[in-house]
Amino acid sequence: MPKRCLIDPTPLRQFDFGPHHPFKIERLELTFDLMRAYGLVDRPDVYVLAPRQATLDEATRFHAQGYLETLRIASDGLWVPNLFSHGLGTSDNPVFPDVYDWAMLVAGGSIVCAEEILAGRATRAFHMAGGLHHAMPSHASGFCHINDPVLGIRRLVDAGRRVAYVDIDAHHGDGVQAAFYTTGDVLTISVHQTGYTLFPGSGFVEEIGEGGGQGAAINVPLRPGAGDEAYERVLGEIVLPALSAYRPDVLVTQLGADAIVGDVVANLRMSLRQFERCVRAFRDLGLPWIALGGGGYDIANVVRAWTLAWGTLLELELSEEIPPAWQTSAALRGVTVSSLRGLVTRTPTDLAVLEDLARTIDELREKVFPLLGTSG
What we know:
There is one protein chain. The protein is α/β, with parallel strands linked by helices. The protein has helices spanning 26-37, 56-59, 65-75, 99-119, 148-158, 174-179, 228-246, 272-283, 299-313, 324-331, 351-367, 369-372, and strands at residues 4-7, 46-49, 124-127, 163-167, 186-193, 217-222, 250-254, 289-292.
C-alpha cells in the first residue's frame, strides 16, 4: 500500500506572530483537527511525523550564516544592531519569542518530506506549515524568515533528483525562483497576482531564468479578480504542458490558499472547487510529490483548502458536510463554516483578464517552451 506522510503541525502551535499580524498559526491546528474529523489522519496508508529543526549546515545551503546568527540572537530577545538590514523586526517579519526555533522547525519539516520521498518510505508528503517562499539568503521577507521550500528542494537536488516546483499562492514565489534562477536542475512555475498590484512586486513573464537556468523559470502574473476560467487555462495551457516537457523526477507544490475568493490580502477569486481541481491535476501526474502550505489569511478558506488537498493526496472524495463536532469547536474560535467547498461553484473571469492572459500564454510559448527540453 502506498504510504502518505503528513507532518504534524502540533509542535508549531506554541509560536505566535502577534495579535495584530495577519499570519495566524492557529490555522494549522484547526486544519489538522478538521483532517482528523474527516478520518484522514488515523489511516493505514498514513503516517504522521513531527518536524525537526533544520541544522545549520542544511540552512546554509541557501541562507547566509550571518543572517541565521542574527535571527538566532534576536530570537533570544537580545538587541542586534543590523536587525533591520536583514528585514527583521518589521511589521511583516516580527522578531517574536523563539522565532528562530519556529523558522528552523518549519524548514526541517520540508526537509523531512524530502528525506521520506528519497528513502521511498512515502510517495506523497504534505507539510501544511511549509511553503514560506519569500525568504531570501540574507533577509526575511513577506512573513517568511527561512525559505523551507528551497531547503527541501536542495535536499532533493543534492540527491540527484530533477525537481519541478509549482506555486499557486497569490504572491510570487520570489525566494524560490531566486535560489534556482541560474540552474536547470529545478523548474520553477509561479501563478500569482501581478506584481503591479501585490507584494513582492516581481514575477513578470519576462523573468525566465539566466545562464544554465534560462527557460527553467515560468511566471504567470494574473490580473486581480482572475477567477476560475483563468486558472483552468493556466493549468491546461501552461503548467501541465511545461511539466510534461521538463520531465521532473519529483514534484513540489506550494498550495497557498490566499488566491481563494474571500481572502483579505489578495484578489484572485479562485473558488475552492477550482483549488481542488488544481490539486487533482498535480496528483494525476503520478510523480513523487511534496505538497506545502503557504499563504492564506481567511482561516475558513485555509482549513478547507488544505483538508481538500490532503484528501486529494489520499485519493479520497470528501463529503460536503463539515463534521458537526469540528464546526462547534471552530465556532468557539471565531471560525464558522457549514460546507467543505462552499456555495461558489465557479467564479467568473472578465474578458480583460483573459485577453491579458492570452498574451502571457503566447509569450511563454514563444520564448520559454522551446527552451524547456534543453534546460538542465
